[in-house]
Amino acid sequence: MIRLRRDRAQNYYYLFDHETGIAVRWGKDNREPFWRKEGPELLDISITNYCEKECEFCYRKANRNGDFMEFSLYEEIMEQAEKAGVQQIALGGGNPNQHPEFWRFLKTAREHHITASYTTNGQGMTEEIYQATKMYGGAVAVSWYSPYDDARKVIEKCGEYGISANIHFLLHKGSVAKASALLQSKEIQWKYVNAIIFLNYKPVGNRIYEGLKEDDELDLFLKTAMTFEKCKIGFDSCMISWLVKHRELIAEESVDYCEAGRFSAFISEKGLMYPCSFLSGDESAGDFIRERSLTEIWKNSMVFNDMRERLTAPTRQKAPISRCMNCVDYPLCHGGCQIFPINRCI
């Protein structure tokens, strides 16, 4: 199913493919707006901070005592999201599919004409969840880290159900070799994999890894990934400063810089709304969605306006460096991540 929407207020079009997760935005004279003024196109929603794996690198410190979002709160969010024109949501956590009412979360999103995808660690995936995903949901992403049996089972099961399956891989200095090995793996049924999404490690929470460093190993991996043919390859927007170095290998129209506060937002299991999930450790920076509406927070919250201001001018950026002001890659990169010093040019 493909949805095409025209934003009349800002005169641009937004196309979203429910099956593949591909989103395309274009406006007058092939320009797109800097941000969508009426509300986000995408919401990243944590519906639980529960996770039985308790991985030491989890930036949200998810654990076996984690909280679950109240379903009534989620219903309120979906009602407001539909009115604001949200097209898709990404359910996360914790491990979202272990929420006791998970199938209702998928069904409710569909009832509000919103596509719900989610990321799982592979635990707690039942036949009921696969059936609900097929009936109401979008794509499934599975986190890729040792041991890999759970991830492979999810990929194969999604293939059996005809569900679009993605792999999420966390990139840091110590995992580049493993990322290269993933691309060479013969144990994955590649016919069932829609895409691999590589995520730049953010030094928040336990901060146990060293960030990416510019070297020959990383360069070789990026070049290999960008020419990979077994499935699609994607990178989160936090990788943008690393990708522009190899811009001759990418279709620039397929690349966007940080969308936090421009086209996307995050809501925690407690109902606090932020421009980006990596700000959620600071509860004072979040706005409670039962005290201010989703649209009001989006338009008027100080933290959202601050994020947008940072992305409009190099002089306002926090993490990037002053060289951004004169860099030829700035129009594509916009200084990379605005929250953490994880960019190539530091």
UniProtKB/TrEMBL annotation:
Annotated Pfam families: Radical_SAM, SPASM
Residue intervals of the Radical SAM core domain: 37-236
Xref: InterPro entries: 4Fe4S-binding_SPASM_dom, Aldolase_TIM, Radical_SAM_PqqE_MftC-like, rSAM, rSAM_sf
Top-level taxon of origin: Bacteria
NCBIfam families, per the entry: rSAM_more_4Fe4S (TIGR04085)
GO MF, one example: catalytic activity
Classification lineage: Bacteria, Bacillati, Bacillota, Clostridia, Lachnospirales
Keywords, ordered alphabetically: Iron, Iron-sulfur, Metal-binding, S-adenosyl-L-methionine
UniProt protein name: Pyrroloquinoline quinone biosynthesis protein PqqE
